[in-house]
Amino acid sequence: MTAPNRTLALFNYDWDATGYAHAARSTGSVLDSAGFDLFTFPSNARLAWFDMERFAARLAVQARRKGWQAVVSNHEQFGALTAALLAERMGWPGSPVKAIMACQHKLYARQVLQQVAPEANVPFQLLDAAYGAPVPQGLTYPTFVKPVKAAFSVLARQVDSHADLHRHTRFGAWELWVIRKLVEPFERMARQRLGPQVPSAHRLMLEAPVHADQFNLDGYVFNGQCHALGVVDALMYPGTQAFMRFQLPTRLPDSVQAWALDVARRFLQAVGFTHGLFNMEFFYDEATDELKVIEFNPRMASQFSDLYRQVKGVCLHALSLALAHNRDPAQLPRHTPTAGAAASFVHRVFDPLAPVSMPTAAQLAAFADTYPDGLVMPFPKSAGSIARDFKWLGSYRFGIVHLAGATQTDMLAHYRAACSTLGWPALAG
Description:
Elements: E1 6-10, H1 15-27, E2 30-34, H2 52-66, E3 70-72, H3 79-90, H4 97-104, H5 106-116, E4 124-126, E5 143-147, E6 157-159, H6 162-168, H7 173-193, E7 204-207, E8 213-222, E9 225-236, E10 243-248, H8 254-271, E11 276-285, E12 290-297, H9 305-312, H10 316-324, E13 341-349, H11 361-370, E14 375-378, H12 383-393, E15 396-405, H13 408-422
Parallel strand pairs: 1-2, 1-3
Antiparallel strand pairs: 4-7, 5-6, 5-7, 8-9, 8-11, 9-10, 10-13, 11-12, 13-15, 14-15
Helix pairs in contact: 1-10, 2-3, 5-8
């Protein structure tokens, strides 16, 4: 008998833990995991000494002993880049290290986009101040501020005045320690791989605000050719920049989807992204017919994987495994879609004093019995972590629900009934 493919999944939790387990079973693969949870103590204590290159070197030693043949990761902060480093060391298929870094260094990515697709770019600049330093005078407001290197939309929001930006950039000693430890592994590599002329990742940057509907283009590059998988619509909580729901199918016309793919193709080619899954976040304003890139994620958007599986019959995690073993994703069999619409509902509170309840074991069991293809993820946190979420994100994400239906109306009806089961308030339709 032929030995099964053995693949290492880095920082493999939440959607990835579920998605890769399902994909491995369906393909007869064997999956091992490594990495640590950034949000759980004592696992996250490893931040104090974490170094991506040393981590990749240790994994390379283990790879020979454990028989790993490929590596995957969709973890934004450390996983995607560590996977690229390991693939490089082992001679495995993978996304080029420099291309990953070019996408994740948000200022560098803007500079490249300005060269290859200026019509899809927004005005931008580096905030000329170190963390916690005085905010320069003479800036134009409102402006959108975000870290040069970050994940999960941390510290990214619109500020309307000098005083607002000043308040937003004040950090306590613990906050500064966490921010620096999250960014420093990338910073060390950026100096080596992107060059000394690239601004430090330990900075914030400013962009002109855009007020338009938001979308996600998902796709992959194989043999240097860029392919679209689909577009997921993002709906926000009214009056905020916080995601309320992601849904398929998209409402975007085919022509706009093709335009987004063309922009992605130009950018990815420019940064040397020749292999792997990607996700491009963008705005599209129907009234002005303008498309503006928010950012490129050099990895799968794992949160959307089961939406694609149910609506399009495409398993993103299976595609990821195929790419890791240098197999053409276009040759993978597609499943029969089981739904006409599917969504990821993001439950948040915007008041730090608002009570939040987590579903009981009985409620979770009732949900699973009623919606076997559904998914619910509670995110309980300590008071300190919730306070940090409000500082960095402006809200606390306490749970996510995935549900599908024959139509969008059917899906929303299932969702409202599921919220009643879970004891959570239903979001606006």
